[in-house]
């Protein structure tokens, strides 16, 4: 069976991906969320797992009752990406089996045809046209014929790979980024592992009967993925342009059950591994200009180290016999460039030579040993002709090829056979049998010309050809013509005749003594026992010594030409990938063909044509192809697709979310309003009751989450005012804990079907609101204030990941006369990975470890909160150690006291002494030194957290903050703080974990107004623009460097942190170290004498003076100064490019003040973002703790306990389904819980979570509790089971249980099911009494089942438990016993039946039955039709534009004044066309936690969802009378240029002037990238797209017939 992928697009535009893998028997269905594009897969049989494709398709189309718009049939899934308002799915529609059967099985398929399926999403997130153009470009990328994959074997490594398919070598995986969405939903193998390059094989015959197969596999490295002229030489990832690993695999196919002998030879090709580039001046010029970087060998070392690691033969065992043990890994570079006088390429040759000399001199290559062979291919061909060129190459290659050898071995289908294997054995789970290796290639030959194109391909062919003949001979496939004759004569031997032919001059005789033949060579007068024609092929590598003609004459040419054919094809593929055209100069590969001569003339013409074609192609297309490739690989996305979130939000209101109360409608609707939550009812217009003051909706979310956005689909009839005008949002974890989070959010009138996004913040503390300036801002006239540096007054909303109920109150518009209409409603948010955490035994322990780590940090609750951990950038920057000088490990001792202050964030300035222990990381740094340049500001590995902690406990962070403030302001008495001091104060504040509101409160308490300490206000506007623009640039540079570092580490020893350490910033005052420091940018302090350590000095990149740590600006300064242009992935710009590996230092005196300040700004932004992350992680932690207590769990026990729990549940369910499990089910109302109890939600938590013995209990004085449980979906409930707590029941605490079922929250509508007295049950089941025997865990836990008489279809189950005693009796009892217990308490405490101890308790509540698989609401189409009939009746009024006499823009175009003509009609409202701006994802340098987030994160909540940017428009109507009318509107997010109509509450007569003012988080937006071609992305700190120019029109309402009367009026 082949893999089959079917992509079904339904009429509703919903998309399903149906995948049936060749390696599995079942079919998986992945649903694409129509709003966010997130993939959904739960792995539930009958829902998204099916036995066959047909069953899956039948389910999706509901037995083809649901129409599908389109269906695409494909053969492999290649990738998927969500790109804002659209998503792209890449599938292979045609494959060719290019290597059908590898030894040991497995087929390599080449993608012959592919298709990008574009999925339109309804997410209205603002996205610019530039971004959309880039998405279109990505979808244009043609991958056909140039990519291959294998579904069952790892082919990213030399054959045979010891690794499985799941662990490919990242260097060669091209769809790693695109396949991630499938990995994230738990389908890691559903996307193939896509390689770029060439794979093809040929059958060939040898002498005699045995034939062989040869495959040529060429994998292109993705580390320097560019096109010609943009990707040459090395880049920042230490990859070279057009780098390809080639493999020549020869084997003898056998039928099953036998061994398959094979051999494999590997070589590399790529451009010269130094830092160089070329630039085409124009489309027709012949020579491109070559330049070499200032520091050309940067990254060369890493390049060779990578080769050494990959080709070093680790299993020396197998090679002992064949290779002389040297421990060396030879890397032989064969350089084919021109090096004659005056040739442009010769400069490269010189550098190449020099680089290798340098490499060998560094002593850092380990066992890798590099040798360079220069062979000027073109010159030799010209001088000596093709044949002699080939001969010459062979002479050069002979020795290295023989030393390096190739791998050979046998595949055995049965593993037992391997036990006899003498060499090393390679086995993995992907193959049945195993490989026994007789020898393994050690080292590699690397070919290069300028481009790794034509010469490279030709030379590597002639090199590989020699190996090919040798490989064949080792496999007993002789390609010897002589041997062919020999063999034929051997067969004749069977006839008893000795007619075997001998070479001329030879004679065969018999030895009369032994009877054996011997041979006389009369030419040389020698004799031998061996037949001359048999001996010849056994001499290894003999063809290296042959002249061309000799080779040709003695070798079977058919296989040779088969091989040439493969090389020609591969050459064309690589040329096409790199240059967009076929290879040139390839006629030499046909040199063994008889008719070569005929073609050479033709070839010459062709070469010229290709040259011209290439030049043109490269000039015109290179940069756009480069961009396509980068996006395909997921690189530089913050630049190409700046607004796209890494982790899109989830829609949580979809079924199984539901309405908890019926939504009123004008005509009775059976579904109670749930169609409002369904995407399938996109066209719905819900008409509410006539005359309603407001409409209230209670939405139960499918999963608990932090609510981030409300998405409304505007829906109305002919009159657009029937859609509500405002909405209030309340959220809560249950219906009785709702909190108002949005009040009166304005809903403008707009076209039917418009999607409005209303950002939602968590509840903001009213006290915070009053204290920060921000709350007042919309009313304040300080419109010129722009917090461009960072949000100084950030208001922090409460984060809660357990929100479950969203209540919406819609209010009608004032002018509306028709009933309120509603359309589809969606709630978007971030949910925690509950399923992985609670029920996935593989991942759960991983999460638990992570949580425990987090919780221990929270428990310390140090002043600096989580900043105490080592991922803090503060530590990165300050954790200096002395070891930047390579040999100085012995010299290092701590450092100086001042440094320690920055390192620890030490708060106590009077106590500067910390032992040098705290940063004794010199050794570690030396260890890292291995690969990278040593970083003198490397992150500290150990941070003395407890010390800080103690201090905070003693003083409180507020006190410490104020103390620090006083110490700063003390320096310049009476005067305000300067910019740097303000930033230091903010750094201190963030380190101490104070929110802006807490800061303001603290300052207020000492009579300081915080605005006076706002850095945004401390500099003038133009300076502010420049400064924030610099900081924005640094943010982008930082992400570039990070990305490059991550990629640069591929294939190298891990262990180097990718941490970005841009800032050399201290919050305390510092002073020059003196000593060797030649810069003295800061005044020296008295402590000078103690600073003797030389190792904290570096050299300034600019002035080349020695500079001390304190006088050095951060590395970010180097970036800003030197690459104000952007860092390109291809490294090279004319001036030489820049490598992320080479961070240099700039001293503070060479670096202007504004750059130093920009570093501060960036640093504070990073701290800000860390604070947000920290807050969301804490909220996540607290949410988890409300489901199960973390403290008791040991991660290692967890997976076992989860598996055990799942078995227990299965026992209890007895074939039924569990319907009320968290996170799908939840309590509708809070239930009072005892203090020492497990959390309430633990009652619904999956089995196996929480401590085994623990259970839930009600407070002692509660004699009755009621649980209302909202089930995971509409279900047929068969009964309820209560798992008995470990304490067991006694006569006094076994409750009376009553159960009801219902669908909505109205109590009166519920159905009574029954009443059970547990007392009766336990009398017949005594095992339920008393504490559990702790000795063994039973498979079936103690439980009581309450079976319903009949299954009942419902959504909510209510369970009431009442203790047997009535209230008065129990009180009396307890009083008595309290009195008694005073006398002798021990007696009563020991008795479990003591009524004093009775309380209601349970371990778990299980609801069982069967859930209704599908969203099968009652058929509502009739009702919807009837509802529509209520609309379209009132003839709509038209909106007419009010002419404006004059208008004026001011305050950065954020304020617009319009002066209507005199005698204008009254103003009814205004139209606003929405802004063409985006919110960029990248706003600051990456902190190391950003890396963690990519790998593993609990919340995956991006900054901009923690604190969403919200815009307001304030309208002031100035009346003739001078009276002012001020209105304010919170703006929803819509697509750019969507017209929004805002009606004033009253008609505004006699307006002299109307002032519009854009307020809110205007600084969070930037311009669309299409507007900024050739500029840096965030060139303008304030988006020009936010300009109110031409965005606003005033209107009034009039009957449309008035149109005729006043000709000058136009509709708006
Ligand atoms: Zn200094
Ligand atoms: Zn300097």
Describe this structure in words.
This protein has 1612 residues and is α+β, with helices and mostly antiparallel strands. The chain is 28% helix and 23% strand. The chain has 36 helices and 57 strands. The strands form twelve sheets. Strands 7, 8, 9, 10, 11, 12, 13, 14, 17, 18, 19, 20, 21 and 22 form a 14-stranded mixed β-sheet that branches. Strands 26, 27, 29, 30, 31, 32, 33 and 35 form an eight-stranded antiparallel β-sheet that branches. Strands 38, 39, 41, 42, 43, 44 and 46 form a seven-stranded antiparallel β-sheet that branches. Helix 9 crosses helix 10, helix 22 packs across helix 24 and helix 26 packs across helix 28. It is globular and about 120 Å long. It starts with a strand and ends in a 7-residue tail after the last helix. The chain binds zinc ion (2 copies). One zinc ion (ZN) binds next to loops. It holds the Pfam family WW.
Structure summarized in a few sentences:
By secondary structure, the protein is of the alpha+beta class.
Helix/strand/pairing category: alpha+beta
Range of strand content = 15-25%
Largest sheet composition: 14 strands, mixed
Bound molecules: zinc ion
* Average pLDDT score: 80
Shape: globular
Q: What is the tally of beta strands?
A: 57
State the low-pLDDT regions, or none: 316-325, 487-499, 858-949, 1086-1094, 1124-1137, 1366-1394
Q: What radius of gyration results from the CA coordinates?
A: 38 Å
Q: Portion of residues in helices?
A: 25-40%
Please give the count of helices. 36
Distance between the termini: 61 Å
């Amino acid at each position: 069976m082949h893999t089959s992928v079917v992509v079904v697009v339904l009429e509703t535009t919903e998309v399903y991906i149906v995948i049936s893998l060749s390696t599995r028997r079942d079919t998986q269905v992945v649903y694409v969320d129509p709003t966010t594009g997130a993939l959904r897969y739960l792995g539930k049989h009958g829902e998204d797992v099916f036995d066959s494709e047909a069953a899956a398709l039948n389910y999706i189309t509901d037995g083809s009752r649901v129409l599908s718009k389109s269906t695409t049939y494909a053969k492999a899934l290649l990738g998927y990406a969500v790109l804002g308002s659209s998503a792209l799915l890449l599938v292979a529609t045609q494959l060719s089996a290019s290597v059908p059967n590898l030894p040991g099985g497995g087929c390599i398929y080449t993608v012959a045809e592919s298709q990008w399926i574009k999925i339109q999403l309804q997410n209205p997130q603002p996205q610019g046209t530039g971004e959309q153009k880039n998405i279109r470009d990505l979808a244009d990328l043609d991958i056909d014929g140039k990519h291959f994959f294998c579904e069952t074997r790892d082919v990213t490594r030399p054959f045979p790979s010891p690794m499985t398919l799941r662990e490919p070598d990242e260097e060669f995986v091209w769809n790693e980024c695109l396949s991630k969405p499938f990995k994230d939903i738990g389908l890691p193998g559903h996307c193939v592992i896509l390689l770029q390059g060439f794979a093809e094989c040929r059958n060939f015959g040898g002498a005699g009967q045995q034939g062989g197969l040869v495959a040529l596999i060429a994998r292109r490295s993705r580390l320097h993925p560019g096109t010609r002229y943009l990707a040459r030489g090395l880049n920042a990832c230490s990859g070279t342009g057009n780098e390809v690993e080639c493999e020549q695999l020869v084997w003898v196919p056998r039928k099953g059950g036998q061994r398959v002998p094979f051999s494999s030879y590997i070589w590399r090709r790529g451009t010269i591994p130094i830092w160089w580039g070329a630039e085409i001046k124009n489309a027709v010029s012949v020579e491109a200009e070559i330049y070499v970087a200032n520091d050309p060998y940067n990254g060369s070392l890493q390049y060779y180290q990578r080769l050494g690691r990959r080709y070093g033969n680790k299993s020396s065992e197998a090679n002992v016999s064949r290779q002389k043990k040297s421990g060396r890994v030879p890397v032989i570079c064969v350089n084919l460039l021109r090096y004659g006088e005056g040739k442009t390429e010769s400069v490269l040759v010189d550098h190449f030579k020099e680089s290798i000399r340098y490499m060998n001199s560094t002593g850092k290559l380990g066992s890798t040993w590099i040798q360079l062979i220069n062979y000027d291919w073109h010159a030799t061909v010209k001088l000596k002709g093709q044949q002699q060129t080939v001969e010459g190459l062979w002479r050069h290659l002979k020795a290295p090829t023989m030393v390096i050898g190739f791998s050979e071995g046998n595949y055995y289908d049965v593993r037992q056979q391997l036990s006899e294997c003498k060499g090393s054995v390679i086995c993995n789970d992907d193959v049945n049998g195993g490989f026994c290796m007789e020898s393994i290639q050690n080292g590699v030959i690397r070919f290069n010309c300028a481009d790794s194109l034509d010469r490279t391909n030709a030379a590597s062919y002639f090199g590989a050809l020699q190996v090919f003949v040798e490989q064949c001979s080792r496999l007993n496939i002789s390609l010897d013509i002589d041997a062919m004759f020999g063999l034929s004569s051997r067969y004749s031997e069977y006839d008893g005749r000795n007619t075997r032919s001998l070479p001329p001059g030879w004679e065969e005789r018999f030895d009369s003594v032994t009877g054996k033949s011997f041979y006389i060579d009369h030419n040389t007068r020698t004799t031998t026992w061996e037949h001359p024609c048999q001996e010849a092929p056994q001499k290894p590598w003999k063809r290296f010594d042959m002249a061309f003609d000799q080779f040709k004459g003695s070798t079977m040419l058919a296989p040779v030409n088969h091989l040439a054919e493969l090389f020609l094809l591969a050459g064309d593929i690589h040329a096409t990938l790199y240059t967009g055209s076929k290879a040139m100069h390839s006629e030499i590969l046909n040199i063994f063909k008889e008719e070569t001569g005929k073609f050479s003339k033709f070839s010459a013409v062709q070469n010229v044509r290709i040259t011209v074609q290439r030049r043109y192609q490269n000039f015109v297309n290179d940069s756009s192809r480069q961009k396509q490739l980068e996006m395909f690989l997921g690189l530089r996305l913050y630049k190409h697709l700046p607004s796209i979130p890494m982790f899109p939000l989830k829609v949580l209101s979809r079924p199984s979310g539901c309405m908890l109360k019926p939504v009123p409608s004008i005509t009775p609707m059976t579904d109670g309003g749930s169609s409002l939550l369904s995407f399938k009812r996109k066209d719905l217009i819900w008409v509410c009751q006539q005359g309603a003051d407001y409409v209230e909706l209670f939405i139960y979310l499918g999963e608990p989450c932090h609510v981030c956005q409300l998405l409304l689909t505007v829906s109305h009839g002919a009159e657009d005012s029937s859609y509500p005008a405002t909405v209030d949002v309340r959220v809560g974890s249950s219906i009785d804990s709702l909190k108002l989070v949005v009040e009166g959010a304005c809903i403008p009138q707009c076209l039917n079907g418009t999607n409005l996004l209303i950002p939602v913040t968590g509840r903001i503390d009213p006290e915070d609101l009053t204290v920060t300036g921000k709350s007042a801002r919309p009313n304040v006239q300080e419109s010129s204030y722009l917090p461009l540096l960072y949000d100084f007054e950030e208001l922090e909303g409460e984060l809660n990941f357990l929100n479950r109920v969203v209540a919406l109150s819609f209010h009608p518009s004032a002018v509306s006369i028709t009933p309120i209409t509603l359309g589809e409603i969606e709630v978007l948010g971030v949910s925690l990975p509950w399923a992985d955490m609670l029920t996935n035994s593989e991942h759960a322990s991983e999460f638990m470890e992570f949580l425990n780590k987090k919780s221990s940090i929270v428990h310390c609750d140090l002043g600096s909160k989580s900043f105490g951990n080592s991922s803090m950038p503060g530590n990165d920057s300050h954790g200096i150690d002395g070891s930047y000088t390579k040999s100085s490990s012995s010299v290092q001792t701590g450092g100086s006291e001042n440094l320690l202050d920055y390192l620890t964030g030490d708060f106590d300035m009077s106590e500067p002494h910390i032992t040098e222990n705290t940063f004794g990381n010199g050794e570690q740094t030396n260890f890292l030194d291995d690969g990278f340049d040593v970083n003198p500001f490397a992150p500290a590995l150990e941070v003395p957290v407890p010390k800080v902690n103690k201090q905070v406990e003693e003083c409180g962070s507020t006190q410490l903050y104020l103390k620090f403030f006083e110490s700063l302001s003390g320096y310049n008495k009476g005067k305000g703080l300067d910019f740097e001091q303000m930033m230091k104060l903010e750094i201190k504040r963030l380190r101490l974990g104070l929110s802006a509101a807490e800061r303001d409160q603290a300052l207020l308490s000492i009579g300081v107004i915080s605005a006076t300490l706002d850095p945004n206000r401390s500099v003038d506007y133009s300076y502010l623009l420049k400064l924030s623009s610099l900081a924005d640039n640094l943010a982008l540079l930082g992400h570039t460097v990070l990305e490059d570092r991550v990629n640069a580490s591929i294939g190298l020893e891990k262990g180097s942190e990718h941490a970005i350490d841009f800032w050399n910033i201290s919050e305390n005052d510092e002073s020059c170290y003196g000593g060797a420091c030649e810069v003295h940018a800061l005044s020296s302090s008295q402590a000078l004498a103690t600073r003797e350590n030389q190792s904290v000095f570096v050299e300034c990149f600019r002035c080349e003076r020695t500079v001390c740590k304190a006088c050095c600006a951060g590395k970010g300064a180097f970036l800003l100064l030197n690459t104000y242009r952007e860092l390109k992935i291809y490294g090279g710009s004319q001036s030489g490019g820049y490598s992320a590996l080479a961070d240099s230092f700039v001293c503070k005196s060479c670096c202007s003040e504004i750059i130093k300040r920009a570093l501060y700004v960036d640093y504070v932004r990073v701290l800000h973002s860390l604070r947000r992350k920290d807050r969301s992680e804490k909220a996540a932690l607290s949410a988890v703790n409300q489901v199960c207590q973390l403290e008791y769990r040991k991660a290692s026990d967890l997976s076992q306990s989860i598996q055990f729990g799942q078995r227990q549940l299965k026992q209890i369910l007895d074939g039924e389904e569990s319907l009320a499990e968290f996170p799908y089910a939840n309590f509708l109302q809070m239930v009072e819980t005892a203090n020492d109890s497990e959390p309430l939600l633990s009652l619904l938590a999956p089995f196996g979570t929480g401590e085994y013995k623990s259970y839930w209990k009600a407070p002692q004085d509660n004699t009755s509790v009621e649980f209302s449980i909202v089930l995971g979906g509409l279900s047929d409930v068969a009964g309820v089971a209560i798992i008995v707590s470990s304490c067991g029941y006694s006569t006094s605490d076994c409750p009376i249980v009553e159960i009801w079922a219902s669908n909505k929250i109205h109590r009166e509508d519920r159905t009574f099911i029954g009443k059970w007295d547990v007392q009766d049950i336990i009398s017949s089941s005594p095992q339920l009494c008393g504490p559990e025997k702790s000795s063994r865990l039973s498979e079936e836990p103690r439980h009581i089942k309450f079976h319903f008489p009949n299954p009942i279809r419902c959504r909510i189950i209510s369970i009431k438990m009442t203790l047997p005693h009535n209230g008065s009796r129990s009180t009396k009892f307890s009083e008595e016993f309290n009195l008694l217990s005073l006398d002798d308490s021990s007696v009563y405490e020991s008795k479990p039946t003591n009524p004093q101890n009775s309380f209601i308790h349970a371990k778990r509540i299980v609801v069982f039955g069967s859930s209704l698989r599908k969203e099968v609401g009652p058929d509502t189409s009739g009702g919807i039709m009837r509802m529509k009939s209520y609309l379209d009746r009132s003839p709509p009024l038209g909106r007419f534009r009010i002419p404006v006499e004059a208008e004026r823009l001011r305050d950065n175009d954020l304020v617009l004044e319009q002066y209507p003509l005199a005698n204008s009609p009254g103003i009814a409202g205004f139209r606003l066309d929405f802004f063409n701006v985006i919110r960029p994802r990248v706003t600051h340098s990456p902190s190391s936690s950003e890396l963690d987030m990519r790998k593993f994160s609990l919340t995956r909540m991006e900054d901009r969802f923690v604190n969403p940017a919200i815009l307001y428009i304030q309208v002031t109507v100035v009346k003739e009378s001078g009276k002012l009318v001020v209105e304010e509107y919170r703006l929803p997010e819509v697509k750019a240029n969507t017209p929004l109509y805002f009606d004033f509450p009253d008609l505004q007569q006699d307006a002299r002037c109307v002032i519009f003012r854009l307020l809110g988080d205007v600084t969070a937006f930037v311009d669309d990238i299409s507007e900024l071609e050739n500029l840096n992305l965030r060139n303008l700190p304030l988006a020009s797209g936010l300009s109110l120019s031409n965005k606003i029109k005033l209107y009034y309402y009039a009957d449309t017939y008035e149109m005729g009367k006043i000709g000058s009026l136009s509709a708006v």
